[in-house]
Amino acid sequence: MSTATLSPYREILTASIAIEDARCGAAELLQRKHYDRIAEDYEAHYGDSCSREYRQRFIYQPMFDGMNLDGMKVLDAMCGSGHTTEYLLSRGAHVTGLDISPAEINHFGARCPEAIGICRSLLDSQLDADSFDCVAVVGGLHHLHPHLDAAMREIHRVLKPGGYFCFMEPHAGSIPDVVRGFWYRFDNLFSDNEAAIDIARLQLEFSERFTFTRTRYEGNVAFLLVLNSLIFRLPLRLKPIYSPALMACEAAIGALQSKLTACFAIGQWRKK
């Protein structure tokens, strides 16, 4: 689909933001304002070549392992500026991006003009039921407290039977999460309702709706200092210098990691 074809669609969606504000709860509005505020810095640090390489090697490849994405209809839920969509398009998927932040959707439209961008909450997506082969969420679910279960029900609703739910999230029950919980309280780059995901609780709660195909625990030095250079206030000009060595360390350490030591979890579930 051409950029010209999609532009009126995006303009209509952007014009509906005021209506969506009325529908959003306090937690969602908090997240929208938070990401609108940090959008430019976020894009600079997470959109550089080093961060893109990290995501492809350590997030996307294990997250979509064993899946043939070619021709799949995929919802990139909480898509941000479209980094995940960019990868999905390169694998031949047909992608719809969904995000509550107008600033991020503007970046999404510029990065992925061949995808459909929708400025709307995952909790009120208004998308058709049983309409996607895959829903992907990269680092978005932990922003949805206290409405995480509602988001999971919506993800299940829009998936086709047998469809994939693929995600990457910081997980509860790890040493990095103890540090993260402390950091959240003092760093204004995090919003008040952010918290790691309890994977075991979600599996118990949604065992009748999903089959849990795969769970992997990943993330160490390169996750912290390459992908999350913004959080550590590391100068962008230094990333190309130190990133190759840290990503080599990440791969070596990753082979020995467990839930206790990893920074994030990767899940691949299927709708029953």
Structure description:
Helices cover 46% and strands 18% of the residues. The protein contains 11 helices and 7 strands. Helix 10 packs antiparallel against helix 11. By secondary structure, it is an alpha/beta fold. A 7-stranded mixed beta sheet has the order 3-2-1-4-5-7-6. It has a single domain (3-271), classed as Rossmann fold, CATH 3.40.50. Strand 2, helix 6 and strand 3 form a beta-alpha-beta unit.
Which SSEs are present, and which pair or pack?
Layout: H1 3-15, H2 17-23, H3 26-46, H4 49-63, E1 73-77, H5 83-90, E2 94-99, H6 102-111, E3 116-119, E4 132-138, H7 148-158, E5 159-169, H8 175-184, H9 199-205, E6 210-218, H10 221-227, H11 239-254, E7 264-271
Parallel strand pairs: 1-2, 1-4, 2-3, 4-5
Antiparallel strand pairs: 5-7, 6-7
Helix pairs in contact: 3-6, 4-10, 4-11, 10-11
**Mean of residue pLDDT?**
87
* Name of the CATH first level: Alpha Beta
User: Could you name the CATH homologous superfamily?
Assistant: Vaccinia Virus protein VP39
Spatial order of the strands forming the largest sheet = 3-2-1-4-5-7-6
Gap from first CA to last CA = 32 Å
Low-confidence stretches: 1-23
Fraction of residues in β-strands: 15-25%
Radius of gyration using CA atoms only: 18 Å
CATH architecture: 3-Layer(aba) Sandwich
Q: Which shape, going by the Cα principal axes?
A: globular
CATH domain fold name: Rossmann fold
Number of domains: 1
Order of helices and strands: HHHHEHEHEEHEHHEHHE
Q: Which structural class should the secondary elements be placed in?
A: alpha/beta
> Helical percent range?
40-55%
Tally the beta strands: 7
User: Count of helices?
Assistant: 11
